[in-house]
Amino acid sequence: MKASNMKRLALLSMVAACGLADAPAQGPEIHSVMREKLNCTQKILEAVVTSDWTGLETETRTLVQLTEDPRWRSLKYSEYTRHSAAFVQAVQTLHEAAAQRNLEVAPLAYSAVTLSCVECHRYLARERLAR
Question: How far apart are the C-alpha atoms of 37 and 45, rounded to whole Å?
């Protein structure tokens, strides 16, 4: 790697570290519920791929219950609320696809769930950097 690229990388790393240091840390409540959400969505992917409709219904129900957990609502950004609502809608669509045993809609709905997670996490990362 050239010296100028090394300097740019070091500068970029310092700027990112400074921005993240000033950002509010994710509390243990939201961290634990997000970890549960991740575990659940991994099981959902397995259920979608294997057409395990019972497992898919069970895991989507669990995911909906997680969104009703007070830990889920610990972030108080209006934009987070919008992202959260989009996530809930995507999960409900996935649950309906599971109930109807719809092999065409289920993978698309799972993709929508995943994209809603990515969009929200991207938003929160920008918020942290902006602070």
Answer: 12
Strands (E), 1-131: none
Phi, psi dihedral angles at 12 (to 5 degrees): -60, -40
Q: What was the pLDDT predicted at 30?
A: 81
Q: Is pTM, for the whole model, over 0.85?
A: no
DSSP letters for 48-70: HHHT-HHHHHHHHHHHHHHHTST
Q: What's 27-130's CATH class?
A: mainly alpha
Which residue did the predictor score with more confidence, 78 or 107?
A: 107
**pLDDT at 29 exceeding the cut of 50:** yes
Q: Where are the domains of the chain?
A: 27-130
- Joined tokens for residue 82: 């919008």
Separation between Cα atoms, residue 131 and residue 128, nearest integer Å:
5
